Amino acid sequence: MIKLQAPISFAARLMLAFIFVVEGWNKIGYYEGTVQYMENHGVPGMLLPLVIVTELGGGLLIACGFQTRLAALALGSFCVLTAILFHRNIADISEFIHFNKDLAIAGGFLLLVAFGAGDWSIDAWQAQREPSSRLV
Fold first, then answer.
1. 17-68: per-residue pLDDT in tens?
2. Burial class of 44 by CB neighbour count within 10 A (0 to 12, 13 to 18, 19+)
3. Which one of 4, 34, 36, 67 is at 20 to 30 Å from 132 when CA atoms are compared?
4. Cα–chain-centroid distance for residue 2?
5. Which residue stretches of 1-136 are H helix?
């Protein structure tokens, strides 16, 4: 299994990142609708640029394995906030599923915070070039 750690961690990062890159990009194309959705849930629409940067930028950082721990902490926190702000009506089965999904994804990001991006990442490449670096 040790031989598979690098490709598996790479695949896991891509899977975690995919939804955020897609959703961040979609929010750009559906900007006004997203602002309305946010405001309907009591979240100021002026925060949408920050949401887009977090989702799109954080997703790309995770996919590349660059500043992975920081990006994973940001996206994990984002997932918990999303669960609380947008999916708190757990009496509705659909909202309950979304709430649980967000918490599960946050758990995946916490694993990246704890263990780093793995060998197939920019973080690992930088650490090999700078042995004193402890960011991976």
1. 999 999 999 999 999 999 999 999 999 999 999 999 999 999 999 999 999 9
2. exposed
3. 4
4. 25
5. 5-29, 31-40, 48-52, 58-64, 68-86, 93-115, 122-129
